Automatic annotation (TrEMBL):
SUPFAM superfamilies: NAD(P)-binding Rossmann-fold domains
Keyword field: Oxidoreductase
GO MF terms, alphabetically ordered: 3-oxoacyl-[acyl-carrier-protein] reductase (NADPH) activity
Superkingdom, natural source: Bacteria
EC number(s) reported in the record: 1.1.1.100
Full protein name: 3-oxoacyl-[acyl-carrier protein] reductase
PANTHER family named in the record: DEHYDROGENASES, SHORT CHAIN (PTHR45024), SCP2 DOMAIN-CONTAINING PROTEIN (PTHR45024:SF2)
Pfam families on file: adh_short
SMART domains membership: PKS_KR
InterPro entries cross-referenced by the UniProt entry: KR_dom, NAD(P)-bd_dom_sf, Peroxisomal_Beta-Oxidation, Sc_DH/Rdtase_CS, SDR_fam
Length: 278
């Protein structure tokens, strides 16, 4: 596995999971573009990476805006000469039961995750296609962030779940399209204690740190980062997959697949289908 010399963008890297991904990529030798909509904590993460002997630059901005996506890729290439890794991690929640959900709750969450994945991937992919067509060997990796909320469903999160299911679909489509340019695309569904989970009382309690500070903390966000780092590495060959990571556990999700088929030589009537599909 090698991350040495690779140039990586991590979106939403000022805190939580993104911060841990950026710190680990930096510690493993990658040069990191630290994006977040919050400039000050993003700059602090840059300081941490540099203090640990790594290289990093801050790139504040809303990742769902077209200009920020382009600027992130430009900054990586201008500062470090290339781009190899994009970790799409930024996003937020606005949990509400469907009947109470506002248009803003829906738009804000769907935008940050879905458009927030699309925009930087679009600009990075254009860069990699140009490199590949110019004859350079591209060994690039995009790591997306989905959620069990989108893969198995979670009441109160119709906006977030729909967006995260969309991220899983986006991952599969992008992997199929970009493989020809040397780009792999995978997704990780993390489970970890962050600002996002601490805002939900039931989760905050379930994910509390262990009382023994020396014990393994199964909800620490840094537990997710080794999977992201491996997927980002030059030696990894996996593409189009969706994983879950929590504590010491990594799971590979099976894609949507056909469970049962009924078929006849002609068009069904509704009543016939009712008989067969009960
Ligand atoms: N924590 C979990 O258990 C869990 C579970 C499933 C999925 N996720 C996903 O993991 C990712 C990271 O979440 P987290 O738990 O670390 O939450 P977090 O709130 O700690 O971190 C998210 C970061 O993204 C930034 N951000 C939000 N919108 C942005 C935008 N438009 N542009 C740039 N930055 C933006 C925030 O400022 C914040 O720093 C999210 O995509 C989240 O949906 C987390």
């Amino acid at each position: 596995m090698t991350l040495a010399g690779r140039v990586a963008i991590v979106t939403g890297a000022a805190r939580g999971l993104g911060r841990e991904h950026a710190l680990l990529l930096g510690a493993e030798g990658a040069r990191v573009v630290v994006n977040d909509i919050d400039a000050e904590p993003a700059q602090m993460v840059v300081g941490e990476i540099v203090a640990a002997g790594g290289e990093a630059v801050a790139a504040p901005g809303d990742v769902a805006t077209w200009e920020t996506g382009e600027a992130l890729v430009d900054l990586a290439v201008e500062t470090y000469g290339d781009l190899h890794v994009l970790v799409n991690n930024a996003g937020n929640v606005a949990d509400r039961l469907l009947v109470n959900m506002t248009e803003d709750d829906w738009d804000h969450v769907v935008r940050s995750h879905l458009k927030g994945h699309f925009v930087p991937t679009r600009w990075a992919a254009a860069y990699w296609r140009q490199r590949s067509k110019g004859g350079s060997e591209v060994r690039a990796s995009v790591v997306c962030t989905t959620s069990t909320s989108g893969l198995v469903g979670n009441p109160g999160q119709s906006n977030y779940g729909a967006a995260k299911a969309g991220v899983a679909a986006f991952t599969v489509v992008a992997a199929a399209e970009l493989g020809r340019y040397g780009v792999r695309v995978n997704a990780v569904a993390p489970l970890a204690r962050t600002r996002l989970t601490e805002s939900v009382p039931a989760l905050a309690e379930r994910m509390a740190p262990p009382s023994d500070p020396g014990a393994f903390d199964p909800w620490h966000p840094a537990n997710v980062s080794p999977l992201v780092a491996w997927l980002a590495s030059a030696g990894c060959e996996v593409t189009g997959k969706v994983f879950l990571a929590q504590g010491g556990k990594v799971e590979l999700f099976r894609p949507w697949s056909v469970e049962a088929t009924v078929e006849k030589d002609g068009r069904w009537t509704p009543a016939e289908l009712g008989e067969r599909l009960r």
